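Before relying on records like the one below, remember that each one covers exactly one chain. Contacts with other chains, cofactors or solvent are not represented anywhere in the record.
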Amino acid sequence: MTNLFTRLRDTLKADLNEVLDRKENQNPIGLLNQYLRECEHETEIARKLVDRQVQLKDEFEKELVEAAELAEKRKHQAEIASKAGETELYQFALAEQDHYSDRADRLRVSLKYVQGQLEELEGKYEEMKHKLKDMHIRRMELMGRENVTRANHQINKVLDVNTNSDKPYSRFQEIESYLDRLGEQVDRSFYRSTIDARVAQLEAEIEINNGKSIS
């Protein structure tokens, strides 16, 4: 199981740039999303292996406690049988004590080994989770770069920068020029419609001023 776990961890440690280079003509964000899904699947398998190892450790601890208790129980029974002169019962209890003591010793060795494996697996699993988190951050970075590239492309398209450099004005400039021309037309229309009334008003003001001067 440790070898399998190591393989899963090494999968996540693969150089992402190599993966992207192999399919450089594809959408890099889409490829990265697919790669992350695969890594998340591998990490989930690793989590289940860690959980299983925890269960095994718990089972070993349970068996060890039971064996140790039975060994102590048979020891006590052997002492009682010895005092009572029950030779056959004493020998049976003593044999049982030895059996459970040996089992407990074997379980202690196994438990120590399982605990060591568990610590190693937990360390590798944490490393996998950190690697996966780093790749999620890498994806956000790439998505940010892609978004900026798309935004700049769209802005440049609107502004006609580079793509339509033969035009004297950008689209925004054309709109501004159009609004200026429209404003001039509105002003001319206004003056044209009010010129008669304005001139008549000026003539009346001049006559009034002249009358004041004669008097």
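The chain has a mean pLDDT of 80.
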